[in-house]
Amino acid sequence: MNCETYSKLELLMDKKVFIFGCGISGATLARKLASHGWNVTIYEKNKYIGGNCYDFVNQDGVLVHKFGPHIFHTPYRDVFRFVKKFAKFNKYRHSVLCNTNNLIFPLPINFESIKIIDPAHATEIIHVLKSFYPDKTTITLDEMKIIDNYEVKKLYQFLYDNVYSNYTAKMWGVGIENVDPSVINRVKIILDEKNNYFPDDKYQGLPVEGYTKMIEKMVNHKNIKVVVNSPYELHFINEKLFIWNGVKDAGSVDVTNTKVVYCGRVDELFDYKYQKLGFRSLKIQFQTFNQSSYQPAPVINYPSDPNFTRITEYQKLTLQNNINKTTISHEYPGMWSEASTDFNTPYYPISNKENENIYHTYIKQIQSFNNFYLLGRLAQYKYFDMDDAIKNAFDLADKIISGK
Description:
The protein is α/β, with parallel strands linked by helices.
């Protein structure tokens, strides 16, 4: 990685862009632009790059994900071809179990799950589901709800009460009825026996050396400079955009007519002028054991536990089979707050009317800036899977390159 610290900002030429944030979105955009002759400077406020994809080898030799498990999966061939330029991927296919009140079955719900949950009526339920949706391979919980069959309705109620409702209440801190249906319907019901968490995604796996190494290689380009632990900040003053280096009386540079991409929180950019946007966060606690395996699946969800949501065993994700120790993590959800010790990292934008209104109020403040762009989960206040984040960065790169 080409990391440098600058005492001064230099606007070298027209094909110059500043990117604030070196997560997967910012790094992807930087590489795309650099490959087309753009000179890119990335400012990353953390001492590491990778954003929430950041991973590292712990003191026990296990590759772990600092911000919880990240599994790469995509149906997009162009996205997979892009990331494969910077990493060799293992053959991992995501496998999840659910443990609710000591009843254990595969997630997402599939025909094997149904046989475990209701063995006496599984044959009937499976037949009804296949008959009602003969051309579908997956359905949502809402699509199950409309089926007029007694046993299917019982299964629906069991899943609603014991899987979806409990997990959602913990994850989002509100009842399931107050959560956007799109969030709940992301977890599909699979209409076959296959235990595959992402059945529609042809390309799956994890980078063998980790996401951090992959992103380091992504930004290792002659046209890309990365400033980590960066003091540089953006400020809108009198309808102009300035980059300030965070040091008192050090001056600032007017970049109103230069391409600037911001990947941070848009409310923070405006000093929370129109109220803070809400995020859910996670407290992740790691433990290492002197044994080769801890649990029967890489991830086990615990909807019925009052405190944590899931346990991840990282060796089962990274396929590090040559280590006699194993590291796990418990995830405890909570409301994000900068002042919190446990929940000071914003993970998931909270999709509701109040936050949408706040977000659009901020967006109105930047509509007149033709060279300023928002990119990624925090800036666009939208949850992105990794492949969608990359695809989103592709789109912005095309826009900038084409000058549209």
